[in-house]
Write a structure and sequence with these properties.
four-stranded antiparallel β-sheet, 2 domains, alpha+beta, 6 helices, about 30% strand
Length: about 260
């Protein structure tokens, strides 16, 4: 074989070795970089998720404090002394579904549950959400010559199950009452509509407003809560019945304990 032929073969061999070395180097680099990138991405996603959860917990903390402080401010500014009126103030600012009053201590107790969501960041593209629930018991106390005071106590989620069930029932009954047409707004029909999962104490009509006091029960029938439903009857207000029909928890129905 001529010298030029051997030189050509050597050059081809050299190029082959270079290509092989390049491929092997790329595979080695990939085997190191890809797992490192995946580990970084996983840790980064976990950090973002933890931060999202921390912020969600902060929102619940802020909700708890805001509900307590706004209730206290409204109670202190109110000139009302009627228990039902004071209970309505607390219910409006806490969204509580269970509300009781201890006359001997001048103490209202409200059980509320608040929810918030936060993003779960996954390793691969795509975001899902998780939910945080907080069950809180708020107490508001006053007495002769003593300003209103308030405190909050976080409870296990199981403690809010009765409140959750009663709140859901109240929302459903409020909606059913708001959907009644004028000819159906009779005492008998209203009682029939509101008797689902509950005990109707009384239904009255005064100055164009229907009022019903009803004891609502949880699924186990172990906890009862009085609610007052109101519904406008005048034609000009009946058109907005969906938004103007209300359901508000009261410490008792017509003076009787809601737990009886």
């Amino acid at each position: 074989m001529s010298t030029s032929g051997r030189a050509g073969i050597d050059r081809v061999s050299d190029i082959g070795r270079i290509i092989l070395a390049t491929v092997l180097g790329a595979l080695l680099l990939t085997s190191v970089l890809v797992p490192s990138w995946l580990l970084y991405k996983e840790k980064h996603s976990e950090r973002i998720t933890r931060e999202n959860r921390r912020q969600a917990l902060m929102r619940l903390d802020q909700q708890t404090k805001r509900s307590r402080d706004e209730s206290l401010r409204a109670l202190r500014e109110s000139s009302a002394h009627d228990v039902d009126a004071l209970a309505g103030i607390i219910a409006r600012h806490t969204d509580a579904h269970l509300l009781a009053y201890d006359a001997s201590r001048g103490r209202f107790t409200a059980t509320a549950e608040w929810k918030t969501e936060y993003a779960l960041v996954a390793l691969w593209p795509g975001i899902t959400h998780d939910r945080l629930n907080r069950c809180v018991v708020l107490t508001f106390t006053h007495g002769p010559g003593v300003a209103w005071t308030g405190r909050t106590d976080q409870q296990d989620q199981a403690e809010c199950e009765p409140a959750r069930a009663i709140g859901s029932l109240a929302a459903g009954l409020r909606r059913r009452l708001s959907q009644l047409e004028g000819e159906d707004l009779t005492d008998a029909r209203v009682r029939e509509v509101l008797a689902v999962g509950s005990k109707v104490e009384r239904v009255t009509t005064d100055r164009g407003v229907l009022r019903a006091e009803v004891i609502l029960f949880d699924r186990a029938k172990a906890v009862g809560q009085c609610y007052r439903f109101t519904r406008p009857l005048t034609p000009e207000r009946a058109a907005t019945a969906e938004t103007s029909t209300t359901a508000v928890p009261l410490p008792s129905c017509s003076g009787a304990s809601a737990s009886e």
